[in-house]
Structure formats: C-alpha cells, structure tokens
Amino acid sequence: MLAQAIKDFPKQFAFKPTIENKGGLKSAAKFVVCGMGGSNHATDVLKAWKPELDIVVHRDYGLPVLSDLNNRLIIICSYSGNTEETIDAFNTAKENNLSVAVIAKGGKLIDLAKEHNVPYIVLPDTGIQPRSAIGFMFMSLMKLMGDEADLQKSSALASILKPDRTEGTGRALAKKLTGRVPVIYSSSRNFAVANNWKVKFTENTKIPAFMNVLPELNHHEMNGFSAQGGSLPDGWRGASGGDVSTRRMLLEKFHFIFLRDDEDNPRVIKRMAVLQKMYADRGLPVEVVNLSGQSRLEKIFTSLLLADWTSLALAEIYGIDPEPVPMVEEFKKLIV
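The line above is the sequence of SIS domain-containing protein; the predicted structure tokens follow.
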C-alpha cells in the first residue's frame, strides 16, 4: 500500500480543493495553522517554499499567545478530523470569536465546521496515512489562503514529479543504513525536509532517527561525536576512569545523511563540507544527498519521495509493516 501511495503521490497535486461555507472565509495576510504529526508537514513545507508568508505553526492544545490573533485566519488541519489537540484548538478559536477554517477528510472537525457554519475543505479519503497526504494538505492550505497563483504553480508537480526515478537510490541508501540510526542534517531553510526524513524513519521503519540544522548544530551537537577517531588519545581516561573507547561504542550505530542544497547560503555549504570531512575522519559513516530539481518545490518534494523509498525499503529489510503506527494508537487509548 505504501509503495503504491509513493507512486501515486504526484497525483495529489492535481487535487482541486473546494471550500464549503466559503462565505464565512476571512481574507487574511496572516495565519495560524494548527496541526499535529503528519497533518502539519505541509505547513512546514509551505513555509520553506514561501518564507515571506506570515504563518505561525501551532502543535499543541489551544492557540498560541499572539497579540494579533484577531487579525489572523486560524486554519485547523487534521487528516482524520479527530485529533484531540486540533479539536481543542478549534473550540478555543470559536470561544474567542476568531476566524477559523478546517481541513480534514471527515471526523469530528468536519462535523464541527458544519455545525458552526465554518469554512472547510474535505480531503480525498484514499486510505493513505496522514504523513503520505502532504500534497492534499499543501494544496488545501494555499486554497484557504487565497493563493491562486501559487496553487497553479504547485499543480504542475502532478506531471513534474517522477517517483520511480528515486526508488533505486532510496533502496541503495536503505542497505547502507541497515543496522544503524539515521541522523539527518540540513540547512535551517531546509528544516522541513530534514524533519520529514526523520519522521519517515520513525513512522515507516519504526526505528529511532534524529535531525538537526546547520549552522546551529556546529555550536553544540557535533561535539557529541568527538570521541571517534584520533582527536583524543586512546589511553585517555575521564574522571570516572572510563576509557574513551567506551564513548566511541556509543557512536557505532549512527549513520549521517547530509541534505546538500546548492541554493543554501555559501557559508552553510562550506560548514557542511567541513563537518562531513570531520565526521569521516573520525570513522563516522556519512552520506551526502543532493537536493535536485528545476525549482525549489521540485527539490523539496523529490527529496521527500527519496525519504519515502528509503524508509520503505528499510522497513522491508527489517520485516516491518510500514503502514500502521501501533505505539501511537496504544498511547491514544491510554490517555483517554
């Protein structure tokens, strides 16, 4: 099912969202988008593509504390329509007489939108997981924001994206990652891409995965990997008497993926190259993945397709069903 969802992903950009209760939609230049997990990945990508947009991403109960909430359109995103935090955000918005709109495939949120005569978009129910519906969400967000020009630009991805072109690379990368914990690095401007890679590993492959961004990680995180290689003498002992080799053992399971983008700040590109060499010199496995495409959007979504294939192939290697998220479902039952 996931393999087919990956192959069909470009079709999501042919989706033409319809706004119900459109008469109640507020025209706004500022937005708060409330969503959890995979239902908010599209918002991160939209911010990465259009950083000039005034969008506050909210991943919590209620609403963010902002002095200009009254001037913003509150968009509630939940693929299922039943996410607890987003329902609370909707209720908080209505209690405070704020302008609100809903994106969901059904569930309680659509019921609430109908009950309160709130604008809403119903997503196609194709049986895919929320994390795989990023295209549907992306198109719906732009529709509610009134961005018809960029909506048309994005629809071109339906014919531009070619999932089959990244499958082989993804499967080859999965073999290298077998038995290791992926750590994904990118520039700050590609945070959304790196975070999506991480989530694909944790949800599809059910393994730990971590991400961070440059230049921030150059000021702390990389120091955690200094025990590998010759930067410290083999016989060095800490105050507790532990040999540095014990610390090196902690690093044996990590495999680093550097997401390189030619359009990044030149200083960030240099930092990434230097860090890559420093890690390699310390015996840490590093894979450089170049973001490729004719446009910013194509680069982003092509990389996300590669993340899909890599995480799926790794799940197959481990004999894991990539679709369900049993720990999430167990947790939901325990907090009722």
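Note on the example: The chain has two domains: 2-159, 162-229+243-318. Residues 229-233 have pLDDT under 50 and may be disordered.
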